[in-house]
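Lab notes, practical 5.
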Amino acid sequence: MQEQAAPQNSQIIDRLLGEQQQKKSAEIDTLAEDSQVLITTSRVVSIRYRVYFIILLLVLIIFGNSILLPAWDNFQATKTEASDINLQISSFETRKLQSEADQKLIQKIESQQSNIIACLNTRTNCSAIDPALRTNFSFARSYIQLNNLTDPKMFINEKILLANINEYLLRDPVTKVKNWLINKISIGDPKQFFWNLYYVPLKLNITFDTKDALLSFIDNVETRVLADVNYRVLYKIDKVNYDIANYATQQKVDIDLNAYYYTD
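Output from the prediction step:
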């Protein structure tokens, strides 16, 4: 009886162990399935959040480009405009004072014009000029020489220019005799200098006997004032092509200068 009971007990133990092994295997499969579900759920949630983040980022970019950037540009433009207005307001008083001072200076020039011309041309009556004008002789002369050279039929009245050059610039200021010869005159197109102030470029080719004749011409251009107000022209010399080494011989000299004038 004992020999038969031993095999039977062994079978029972094996069956119990097999059932336990099946239960463990089932539990492991269940855990694996649960873990897989959790991993899948986590991935889905992670992808969803990424999609939400990308959508939010796109919304922010669109919002920034369509609203924030234009608003910032408008703010900067408004700030710049306000700064310019404040600068204009702050400088208005300075410009006003400068304008008043210029008007007073012009009034002095006009009232003492004859003394200024005499001082420039003959070095007389200089002491009779207002001290404020003695330090502004260049401005005073420019104001007196500046003329209206416009012509209804042309951009500029070339007759005044040619008469000024031929009858004034080319004559000795003392003897009034021509001691040089003009070979060529080229008048360019007028150009705006500032507001209603214009200039026209001139190219001259003149034969001078000596350097003294050239210096007399330059003196007429830069320091003297023509007595006839109708033929006055304000010039500024740009270039003089002269061989100083041969100053004692006759030379053909190229001179570039600008004639300034105003328009009404």
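Observations recorded by the TA: The chain has a mean pLDDT of 80. The first helix runs from residue 2 to 111.
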